[in-house]
Amino acid sequence: MDFGLQGKWALVCAGSKGLGRGCALALAREGVNVVITARGADALAATAAQARALGVQAIEVVGDITTPEGRAAALSAAPQVDILVNNAGGPPPGDFRDWDEADWQRALTANMLTPIALMKATVDAMAARGFGRVVNITSGAVKAPIEVLGLSNGARSGLTGFVAGLARDARLAARNVTVNNLLPGSFDTDRIRATHAAAAQRQGRPLAEVQAEKIAAIPARRLGLAEEFGAMCAFVCSQQAAYLTGQNLLIDGGAYPGAM
């Protein structure tokens, strides 16, 4: 299926590893030129090289997207932004009794305020051109909060509420600009490995035992793959998904136990 994205430009945040990388490479396979930003230069260079090998332009921007300087550098590197993939590392797990205002501010900046700032910088130009796709990578914890991820639960839920309103703004929706959230469950990434390691340490149990227990709770009986997540991202950005906006798409191998 031709997704109708050939020659578009995407800005993919935190795109050197994990789910962001999966999205960047999936879009590149559809002929999308990519601006990829991340803090780690080596991993970023490797991902950009893989994207170029797929026949598209790939621009690397080393920086922290959660800072004004990082955002400015990423935006200025893009000839235009037809597709915005918002992504940033989640805050650490822990007990809310141990967090102070600075911890909350960091979480809000990374997982709520930064995506909003990037949407503000790009969506009106998308509307003027008559095409735009915003994909926010949030978390399955938005639907089923995880006790030890309170910082993430709070910040990402705030973003979800904001997007629910923005996506329904006719100045965007009527101009073929869609805004959707992808909610990953357990994927085989550095993030989930760190979460499992923290749980094992907290419980005083072997890591392998904790990992096996977590996977057994997923009906698919495995972790998701970044490539699978990226394929979903590419579809949400496609011409075929033009009538899909304001949605929270849960990708978790069936782990969420609810009907809706």
UniProtKB/TrEMBL annotation:
<dbReference type="InterPro" id="IPR036291">
    <property type="entry name" value="NAD(P)-bd_dom_sf"/>
</dbReference>
<dbReference type="InterPro" id="IPR050259">
    <property type="entry name" value="SDR"/>
</dbReference>
<comment type="similarity">
    <text>Belongs to the short-chain dehydrogenases/reductases (SDR) family.</text>
</comment>
<protein>
    <submittedName>
        <fullName>SDR family oxidoreductase</fullName>
    </submittedName>
</protein>
<dbReference type="InterPro" id="IPR002347">
    <property type="entry name" value="SDR_fam"/>
</dbReference>
<dbReference type="Pfam" id="PF13561">
    <property type="entry name" value="adh_short_C2"/>
</dbReference>
